[in-house]
């Protein structure tokens, strides 16, 4: 995707847990967002800025590659995307989208700590984070990667345990699963590209970051 010259780009989640609050942040920072004919791109009326509305999983790459100058994304998604290449820089936590990646088990599994996961199958949408956590606990287990509906995996006998995001806990509860371990604490963060913007946009970028940090501080 090539960049429109003379405009900054901010990546936000199109739909899902962070979508609405991400737009609020942008608006509270004084950007007048115009829903365009194009669902992927919203234009900002009062500044040369576009919002790119994408899947959250795509945001770390877009920002790391400089396709977008800023992004709003869950730290969990950012952490999962870490791959040793150039990375987006976390500018600040945003105070919303709080959730925790947890290992949870069905009552049928007699859980007495990470060692109980040895040689078990664990379903997750966060294989890299889970792998690092298992390694840090000296546990070797099979990771089954699922894009969604992770919570049904134990019932379908696809896995012995899961590692999934927990916010209210309603999903675990509804599926009879018990939270056992906290693997990663997450919230929405503002990230910046390691690639500098066009020189004439640097000042605008700095001032948008400043305004956003003012919005976050005022909500402290
Ligand atoms: C996460 C997770 C659970 C749910 C947990 O899904 O996969 O389904 O949230 O939240 P709760 O503790 O409040 O019930 P999410 O909505 O992020 O999206 P996805 O599963 O569709 O990717
Ligand atoms: Zn996602
Ligand atoms: Mg879900």
TrEMBL record:
<keyword id="KW-0067">ATP-binding</keyword>
<keyword id="KW-0547">Nucleotide-binding</keyword>
<keyword id="KW-0460">Magnesium</keyword>
<keyword id="KW-0808">Transferase</keyword>
<comment type="similarity">
    <text>Belongs to the ATP phosphoribosyltransferase family. Long subfamily.</text>
</comment>
<keyword id="KW-0479">Metal-binding</keyword>
<protein>
    <recommendedName>
        <fullName>ATP phosphoribosyltransferase</fullName>
        <ecNumber>2.4.2.17</ecNumber>
    </recommendedName>
</protein>
<keyword id="KW-0368">Histidine biosynthesis</keyword>
<dbReference type="GO" id="GO:0003879">
    <property type="term" value="F:ATP phosphoribosyltransferase activity"/>
</dbReference>
<keyword id="KW-0028">Amino-acid biosynthesis</keyword>
<keyword id="KW-0963">Cytoplasm</keyword>
<feature type="domain" description="ATP phosphoribosyltransferase catalytic">
    <location>
        <begin position="55"/>
        <end position="213"/>
    </location>
</feature>
<comment type="pathway">
    <text>Amino-acid biosynthesis; L-histidine biosynthesis; L-histidine from 5-phospho-alpha-D-ribose 1-diphosphate: step 1/9.</text>
</comment>
<keyword id="KW-0328">Glycosyltransferase</keyword>
<comment type="function">
    <text>Catalyzes the condensation of ATP and 5-phosphoribose 1-diphosphate to form N'-(5'-phosphoribosyl)-ATP (PR-ATP). Has a crucial role in the pathway because the rate of histidine biosynthesis seems to be controlled primarily by regulation of HisG enzymatic activity.</text>
</comment>
């Amino acid at each position: 995707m090539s960049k429109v010259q003379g405009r900054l780009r901010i990546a936000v989640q199109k739909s899902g847990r962070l979508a609405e609050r991400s737009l609020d942040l942008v608006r509270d920072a004084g950007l007048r967002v115009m829903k365009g004919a194009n669902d992927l791109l919203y234009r900002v009326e009062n500044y040369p800025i576009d919002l790119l509305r994408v899947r959250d999983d795509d945001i770390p790459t877009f920002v790391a590659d400089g396709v977008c100058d800023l992004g709003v994304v869950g730290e969990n998604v950012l952490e999962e995307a870490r791959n040793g290449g150039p990375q987006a820089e976390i500018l600040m936590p945003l105070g919303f989208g709080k959730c925790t990646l947890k290992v949870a088990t069905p009552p049928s599994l007699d859980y007495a700590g990470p060692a109980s996961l040895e040689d078990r199958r664990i379903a997750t949408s966060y294989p890299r984070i889970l792998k690092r956590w298992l390694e840090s606990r000296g546990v070797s287990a099979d990771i089954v990667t699922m894009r969604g509906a992770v919570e049904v995996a134990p019932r379908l006998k696809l896995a012995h345990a899961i590692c999934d995001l927990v916010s209210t806990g309603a999903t675990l509860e509804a599926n009879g699963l018990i939270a056992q371990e906290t693997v990663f604490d997450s919230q929405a963060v503002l990230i910046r590209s390691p690639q500098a913007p066009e020189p004439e946009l640097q000042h605008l970028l700095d001032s948008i970051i400043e305004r956003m940090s003012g919005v976050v501080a005022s909500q402290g």
